[in-house]
Amino acid sequence: MGLSRKSKKELRKLQKHAAKVWESQQVLLGESGKVAREAGRQLGRFSREDLVPTVQDGYDKYAAPYVDKGVTYANRFVSHKLVPAAGAVVGGALSVWDAAGDTRDRLAKGRGFELDTHKYAKRAEKYGKKATKRLSAKLPTQNDGIGAGGVIAILLGVAAAVGVAYAAWQTLRADDELWVADDPLRAPDA
């Protein structure tokens, strides 16, 4: 069963209209690609010129002083509190070991059991000082690499960049419900 001349004419007309729509869609896609590339360039420029310096200034102003204070306090605590305490404990343990060895030697030689507390206190102090010096020498020196503050600043910068990228994507995404027709709808002629 063949199509009538009128139907063929309408089909050709519909085909031409579809080709025009297709061509306009291709032009629209090309333009939207250009807009997306330009938005990417603008986003990169914004990140380099505005976002990174702002994040760096914020870090320097708000986080860096507290990070520096924390590092200073930790170094002071290790140097002035922990090392002397550990030295005293090690020195005390070594003096007890030494005292036990001396007592064992005296008992073995038959001299009996004697306690000279002053002598043992002096030895404990001497061993404590020696152990403190050894532990202080083994303390690591402060490195100048990236610290916790640097990691926090990088994470904040990445989070801000992701937020800007998400906002740009939401702005530029194709959502059919958001498009407004160029020609207003007309009521059918009666």
Overall 3D shape: rod-shaped
The fraction of residues assigned to DSSP E strands is: under 5%
Largest sheet: none
Oligomer: single chain
Distance between the termini: 34 Å
Q: SSE order in H/E notation?
A: HHH
Mean pLDDT across all amino acids: 79
SS element count, helices: 3
Q: Rg from C-alpha positions?
A: 41 Å
State the helicity in percent bands. Answer: over 70%
Pick out the low-confidence regions: none
Q: What structural class is derived from the secondary structure elements?
A: mainly alpha
Q: Report the count of strand segments.
A: 0
SSE layout and pairing:
Elements: H1 5-109, H2 117-137, H3 148-172
Helix pairs in contact: 1-2, 1-3
Task: Describe the structure using short key phrases.
190 residues, mainly alpha, 3 helices
Written overview of the protein:
There is one protein chain. The protein has 3 helices and no strands. It is mainly α and 190 residues long. It is rod-shaped and about 135 Å long.
Q: Brief description of this entry?
A:
Helix content is about 80%, strand content about 0%.
